[in-house]
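Re: the request from the purification team.
They wanted to know what the chain is likely to look like in 3D before they choose a buffer screen. I agreed to run a prediction and write the result into the notebook, where they can find it.
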Amino acid sequence: MLVEKVRRIQQMQKPPAILVIGDLMIDHYIWGDATRLSPEAPVPIVNVKNESTTLGGAANVAQNLVALGAKVTLSGVTGNDSFGMRLKEIMVAEGLETDAIVEDASRPTTVKTRVLAGSHQLVRVDREITDPIRSELEDELADKLDHYINEADIVLFSDYGKGLFSEGFTQRLIELAKSKRKKVIIDPKGYDYGKYKGAFIIKPNRKELAEAAKTGQIKNMDDLQKAAKIVLQQTGAEYLVVTLSDEGIIILDELTHKLLPTKATAVFDVTGAGDTVLATMAYFIASGLSIEESCELANHAAAIVIRRVGSATTRIDEIIADIGN
């Protein structure tokens, strides 16, 4: 039955329009060999063989949505620098709209540089400013987003704690979306979920939920329900969707909960799996499926990407195939 619904969605002539608002970043990789130590300090010398740049943060969520077939607009802030230009170049190549992005000359584009020798990561170097963006930029971004929220079937917030989602600006965007009757799904960050008040769904993992609820470590279902109740009351969200790593996904509201056990048969790399869950869930909700059906499909999508190395995406036909296995 679910497979039949997915096939019908796959055949739709008009794909869902999804707006992703979030912290944009570049994942920069430097690969090389390390066969000796530096005479200057007890650190390896890396002889660089290759470099690459890929989309990270909220842009990875957008890539997942594109792979599923959505029409995606990505919004956020970059620096006025070479990495910001590179980010937009990759976005255009990936089929993402870039008109809802604003530049801030006072801060760099967020870049995470990973130096690897063979398959071993030696160091990560971050270029970033995590202070809240300036109020003038909030106004500029809000003006742009008025149109794009109006055109979207659903709105996603991908919060990586890099300064975009201040409490005031987050509430401003949620209210703007609600005024246009658009559902907001949030991948949260930090300890204060009060700024997400009014969201349709908030999607933390187990550790993030415990930190936000300030209940201590979540060890069992009772702990999880207690923490969820605190966050639901704090935010007024209709649902929490909590990812539980190898235990699967659980959907909670004020009165009920439903655990969807993991579909994974092997795990190679969990990088970006949370982005895949967010994107897949949003895609199918925007396409008319229930939250339970959408999370079931997101569970399969996550099982696919964690069998691959690095931030990966999946397609609808792969999800259908995974359901049949």
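For the purification team: The two ends are 15 Å apart (CA to CA).
Please add any questions underneath this entry.
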